[in-house]
Structures are given as C-alpha cells and as structure tokens.
Amino acid sequence: MVAELKIEAILDLIDRREPFEAIDNFRCFHLKIERYAPMIAAAIHDGHYLPESLSDQCALSDTERLYEEDPYTKSFIQGCPIVFSGLDSRYYYDLNRIPSEAIYDTAWGKSVWTIPLSDEQKAGALQRYKRCYTVIHHLMDSLEQQFSNRPLIVFDIHSYNYKRWEREVPEINVGTSQVNHKIWGAYIERYLNLLAHSFDTFWVAENNTFFGKGAFLQQLMNQHANCLVLATEFKKYFCDELTAEVYPEKVEETAHKLQTVIDKMLLSGL
C-alpha cells in the first residue's frame, strides 16, 4: 500500500533503512524502496499533474503536454528495488533544468500560459522542485554510506519524440557527454553492450540524439563523487507520440528487457 508521508517521515525511513512505498504529502513525487541497493531508477518526467488553478491558466491541452512529457517511463523501471518518479508535469517545473530555468514561459516553440505565472506561483513550483531534490540527495547520501565500497548508479529514464527528426534515430540513446569517461568508461561500455544484447533488434547509440546535458545528471554527479548517472532516452515506439495512446505489450516488453540490463549491471559491480 502506498502511504502519503511528510518529507521528514520519508527521510527518517531512509535513515533507518526501512523499505517503504510513499508519495510525499504535497504529492510531488513517488518513492518506492523494496530493498536498499547501490542504485536508483528514476523517471522524473513521468508525471502529468498540474493544480486546477494552473490547468485553467495553461495554454496547452493535456495531449500537448503529454507530447513533451515522458508517459509510461515509470512502468519501464517498476521492477527495480528503488524507484523515484515525478508526479508533477514538467510544464509545472522541470527537474531536468537548473532552478532558474525550471519554470517555462515558452517551451518547444509554444507559450505555456495564457496569463504569466505570478511570483507566488513560481515560488510554489520551486518549493516542490526543492522537495524532490531534498529527498533524492538524502537518499543518495544514505546509499553512498551504506555501499561505500562500490559506485552508486542512477538509471535516469526518459523518452523522446522521433517523428520530428528528419533522419533515422536510435530506439535507445545514452547521453554521456558530461560524464568522465576515464573514470566511468567501463561502466558506460558495459551498459551499452547489455542494452544492445537485451534489445537485440534495436539501434542502441551513445550521444546520437541527446547528449546527457540535463540538470538532473549534472546536479547528482556534481554533489555525489562516486555516482554515475546513465541518462537513457527511449524513442516513443511504445505509444503514439502524438496522442500518447499506449501500446501495453511494448511497455511490458521494454520493462522486462530493461530490468534484465539493470540486474546485470548491479550484479557485475565492475
């Protein structure tokens, strides 16, 4: 059963290393910890929520918002021992941007709001942004202490629209341009090889369509020295990218194959 907990209670459970599943009482994020392991699987753009007041103020339809969100990516990682997912729409605040850029006036060529957000509304959104990062960093600090003899790997799962590209694009892209390959090269190579083996009919690429320049990766790796964030983008082959109509069998297949990859990454330890 999913509990609704205050942040202080969530942090306390992490400190006591107790398994739990909860959403915070502001309903910003969902965190499931079945067991403590040197990994986090994250779907920060899976959420779609906007408060009713902002929904009325938003210039975009639900379908337009879903187009740039990452629906169903949480389903890809549901079998992982630790899963963090955003509940709010990235149009509310974007966890993959630095705070000063996390709230959009325009995005992807479209105005987001019929009436610009007030300073109070922006402050409220950034408070939710901060709550998410407070818990993520606290969890990572705890995992780094518990598993001090090995790296902490964050599987940062996203999706992308491919019909806008005027060339063939990979089904899976791993962005590593901000990662030190001298330190993490063997991990990156193993991850790419495991993805290519598990998704054997897919084109798996590195830095082809996206380059891993998101703030989520940067903030986590800057603050946690022994952490590797693998920013992984899945082409929206698992849904209609224009309407977000899901193809359940594709989601299930992706989840199964990705779980195999993550399990092997954790078992190998390198």
Fold and architecture overview:
It is a single chain. The chain is of the alpha/beta class and 270 residues long. It has one domain: Zn-dependent exopeptidases (Aminopeptidase, 3-Layer(aba) Sandwich), CATH 3.40.630.40. The protein contains 8 helices and 11 strands. The protein has helices spanning 7-15, 52-57, 62-68, 73-76, 119-146, 181-198, 215-223, 248-268; strands spanning 3-5, 20-24, 29-33, 39-43, 82-86, 106-107, 110-111, 152-160, 172-175, 204-206, 227-235. The strands form 2 sheets. It has a 9-stranded mixed beta sheet, sandwiched between helices. β9 (172-175), α6 (181-198) and β10 (204-206) form a beta-alpha-beta unit. The longest helix is centred in the middle third of the chain and has 28 residues, at 119-146. The relative contact order is 0.16.
**Class in CATH?**
Alpha Beta
Total strands: 11
How many domains comprise the coordinates? 1
Helix content: 25-40%
Could you please say which CATH topology applies here?
Aminopeptidase
The 3D shape can be described as: globular
Radius of gyration: 18 Å
Main beta-sheet annotation: 9 strands, mixed
Structural class: alpha/beta
What is the spatial order of strands in the main beta sheet? 1-2-3-5-4-8-11-9-10
Instruction: Specify the number of helices.
Output: 8
Q: Please identify, by name, the CATH architecture.
A: 3-Layer(aba) Sandwich
Q: What percentage of the residues does DSSP assign to strands (E)?
A: 15-25%
